Amino acid sequence: VSLSEVSAPASALSLRGVQHTFAANNVVKGIDLDIAQGEVVCLLGPSGCGKTTLLRIAAGLEVVQEGTVSLEGQAIAAPGKRHVPPEKRNVGLAFQDSALFPHLSVVENVTFGLKHLPTSQRRERALELLTQLGMADYVETYPHMLSGGQQQRVALARALAPTPKLMLLDEPFSSLDARLRDRIRDDTLHVLKKLGSATLLVTHDPEEAMFMADRIALMRDGKIIQTGTPRELYCAPVDPFVVTFFGEVNELEGVVQGGVVQTPVGAVDASWLPEGSAAQVMIRPEALRIKERDLPAEAHSHSHVVMAKLLGRTSLIHLCAHGVDGQEAHLHARVPGVFLPQEGQPIDIDLDHSQVFIFPR
Ligand code: ATP
């Protein structure tokens, strides 16, 4: 036994080789995932990729067909061996459509899981969480009088109240309007970090995952494609799917020559790919930087504006770029602030290479 094995604390949640099939439909295909104590991990991926199923397996709402689920080093579910039921797992659950108890008031819903505390402390604890989640004015209200977003906040408070070691949250902010969502995300993250609960949060929203997560596990078609910090996934994506999942991207084709691929906006390093091979170049819109904004209309330039739109914090520029060798490409650039050049305006572009990715074709 090595020293590191002795000293490393057990993961709050550990999934090993987890597979799941509905009828003949294999929806979870061999997942390994660890969540450290106090860590927030987001399961991110397109609709139907198996996120909810994996969360339900961790919660004990689905029986494990293959693989193992462990909490703090204890195997609690493995096929044919044991299945600790959800209510015995000391896990907080909040789902997209978490039903509140209709006959209990908001505060009674939240105190429901606090039977282990003295009565005086139960209410105090519930009020504290409801206040943090912006529900202080609805303490004595009944669920049917609340909006979907308000119900979701009560469900969150109820899940958080017993300070479980592990929180499992499935799209917990989906019923909130955009403005409120930012605030509740912020408040929820604050509460999670204060309680030190390890958290597995399911979302299909890359921005939500980047905001909430210490680490993101990006899934596609029942598999985890990449696990890492938001920065690792955004800045060091392992394949084209990871790049496109985080937003619109310009895609170009090319051939590796002299260790680079030539594009109409410059050469891109491809020294790790075989000479002569086909490559896919992916350029994020923000990687196209406007080098010269005020070229005279008659200037010779490698690019010209096709269309410009102000989107608020950024301006979107559709441009046509002409390479030195007669290559032409239509590209989308995003630049900060207000920049609304005329159609046909020549502009000079350069590349922020940290937001350009190249993959074998
Ligand atoms: P979403 O973001 O849309 O909720 P998801 O990534 O959470 O999607 P899951 O809900 O895990 O995906 O579903 C994965 C696949 O399993 C889907 O094809 C779904 O139709 C199927 N599935 C889920 N639950 C069941 C079930 N109880 N019986 C049969 N098929 C199911």
TrEMBL record:
Alphabetized, the UniProt keywords read: ATP-binding, Cell membrane, Ion transport, Iron, Iron transport, Membrane, Nucleotide-binding, Transport
Q: Where is the ABC transporter domain?
A: 13-246
Entry keyword Nucleus: no
Transmembrane helix: is it a keyword of this entry? no
What PANTHER family does its record include?
SPERMIDINE/PUTRESCINE IMPORT ATP-BINDING PROTEIN POTA, SPERMIDINE_PUTRESCINE IMPORT ATP-BINDING PROTEIN POTA
Q: What protein name applies here?
A: ABC transporter
Species source reads: Vreelandella lutescens
Q: What is the lineage of its organism?
A: Bacteria, Pseudomonadati, Pseudomonadota, Gammaproteobacteria, Oceanospirillales
